[in-house]
Q: What sequence folds into this?
């Protein structure tokens, strides 16, 4: 399995690297987002979202981040894996860690991101509700999942 590391006080360089990983992952998986939306969300991720969660990371053997998860109040707020490492169990490892060690029981997922919705379903999460708009009021439906 992978070594999951808590990142208690990420440096500005760490936050920049995590934001870059977020963007490459989103560009590979969120084909429903327009380029200007990715720029909009990127500024939110770097400016607000990363600092609002407890961060857990998996590092690449040669350095840098391979994947990360953000957890707050029993919720998996974010999970992103480098595109070149998808399908190798990094996401599963981080989710299982978050469930076992951080008390995670909930996650939200873009309904349009069918791969992610299927991933969470395979891990036992079930849809409990749906919102037609995302947290920014944009027309990207959100599925609320729970164990």
A:
């Amino acid at each position: 399995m992978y070594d999951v590391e808590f990142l208690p006080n990420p440096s500005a360089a760490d936050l920049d690297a995590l934001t870059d990983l977020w963007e490459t992952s989103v560009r590979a998986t969120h084909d429903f987002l327009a380029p200007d939306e990715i720029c909009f969300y990127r500024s939110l991720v770097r400016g607000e979202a990363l600092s609002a969660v407890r961060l857990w990371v998996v590092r690449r053997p040669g350095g840098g981040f391979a994947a990360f998860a953000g957890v707050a109040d029993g919720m998996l707020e974010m999970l992103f894996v480098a595109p070149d490492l998808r399908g190798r169990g990094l996401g599963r490892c981080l989710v299982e860690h978050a469930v076992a060690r951080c008390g995670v029981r909930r996650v939200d997922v873009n309904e349009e991101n069918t791969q992610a919705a299927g991933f969470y379903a395979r891990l036992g999460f079930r849809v409990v509700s749906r919102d037609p708009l995302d947290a920014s009021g944009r027309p990207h439906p959100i599925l609320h999942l729970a164990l």
